[in-house]
Amino acid sequence: MSTTSLNTILGAVVLTGILGALFFGAACIQTYNYYRTYRSDGIILKGAVASLWAVDVLHIVIYIYTIWYYVVDALDTAWVPQVMNWSFKFSVWLAVALVLLLDILYMIYIFKLAPNYAVPALVGLTVAAGNIVAVVLGVRIIIFTHFTNIYAISSSALIYLFFGLFCLKAVNIAAAMTYYLHGSKDVFSVESNTSIVRRTIKLVVGSAMLIAFCSFFVLACHLAMPHSMSCVVVYMIVSKLYHNCFLSLLSCRPIPLGSQLQNKVDGGCNEWSAKELQDGGSSA
């Protein structure tokens, strides 16, 4: 491996740690606000949010160790930075697991909102295909021992299929949720008015466009640097962005009356005026 390629790989690893920490901090704030505001939610949804946060915490801890390993422990050893450490492989799998959990939660809400199972089944096929390809790539990364092994899949059609399905999956989820939310009187089991539905639809569409843009950006990184791990490390950032989008969607629901009396709304879609809060409380 050339020095330039090694610098590119390790630089991408460190940059991912910095950006990932920023998104992790945002997810922590949103998770805290969720539990503070929506105390009346069911135990299953609360458990799902806690599981997502736990996976995110484990991912950032393992990734910090990965950066320490390559930047500190391997600083005086010429060959160690070329080795693909177990922590890097594990962090890739944690990112895949985080995306898989988020896809499952999105599919649950799509099936809940849908009057029949035709459209959700088609979206589910796209989601399943995307995650199967991600698992296959994850297995190949586990087999690798050195970063030079990335050459084996850098020009593979599996890479392009993975990012294509990831983008298609995000668009299909957004399209299905937008369609069903537009014609549904029930949003996340909470009675809501038209402004809440419109706000939620805008967030769903915006999140999908952002995820799709990031998917194309990751693919562009791979095309520009095919012999680096840029596509893999940027995917880890996208997984954390995906997590934040889901938490933002939960925060766009109407605030329970008890939370309005006890707590002031903190940021995001819940930053309403007192009049809007009164109107929402009276309609609920």
Describe this structure in words.
It contains 10 helices and 2 strands, in the order ααααααββαααα. It has 284 residues and is mostly helical. It has helices at 3-37, 43-73, 86-113, 118-143, 151-154, 157-182, 194-224, 230-251, 257-262, 274-283; strands at residues 186-187, 190-191. α1 (3-37) packs parallel to α8 (230-251), α2 runs antiparallel to α3 and α6 (157-182) runs antiparallel to α7 (194-224). It has a two-stranded antiparallel sheet. The longest helix has 35 residues, at 3-37. Helices cover 77% and strands 1% of the residues. Residues 186-192 and 260-284 have low confidence and may be disordered. The chain has a single domain, classed as Rhopdopsin 7-helix transmembrane proteins (Up-down Bundle), CATH 1.20.1070.
List the helices and strands and how they pair.
Layout: H1 3-37, H2 43-73, H3 86-113, H4 118-143, H5 151-154, H6 157-182, E1 186-187, E2 190-191, H7 194-224, H8 230-251, H9 257-262, H10 274-283
Antiparallel strand pairs: 1-2
Helix pairs in contact: 1-2, 1-8, 2-3, 3-4, 3-6, 3-8, 4-6, 6-7, 7-8
Strand content: under 5%
What CATH first level would be assigned? Mainly Alpha
Query: Which percent bin holds the helix content?
Result: over 70%
Report Rg: 21 Å
Structural class: mainly alpha
Which fold name fills CATH's third level, the topology?
A: Rhopdopsin 7-helix transmembrane proteins
What is the helix tally? 10
How many E-type strands? 2
Uncertain regions: pLDDT < 50 for 5+ in a row?
186-192, 260-284
Mean pLDDT: 75
Largest sheet: 2 strands, antiparallel
Q: What is the N-to-C succession of helices and strands? A: HHHHHHEEHHHH
Assign an overall shape: globular
N- to C-terminal distance: 62 Å
Whole-number total of structural domains? 1
Q: Within the largest sheet, what's the order of strands?
A: 1-2
CATH architecture classification: Up-down Bundle
Domain DUF6534: 173-253
Protein name: DUF6534 domain-containing protein
Organism: Mycena maculata
Transmembrane segments: 6-29, 50-70, 90-109, 121-145, 157-182, 203-225
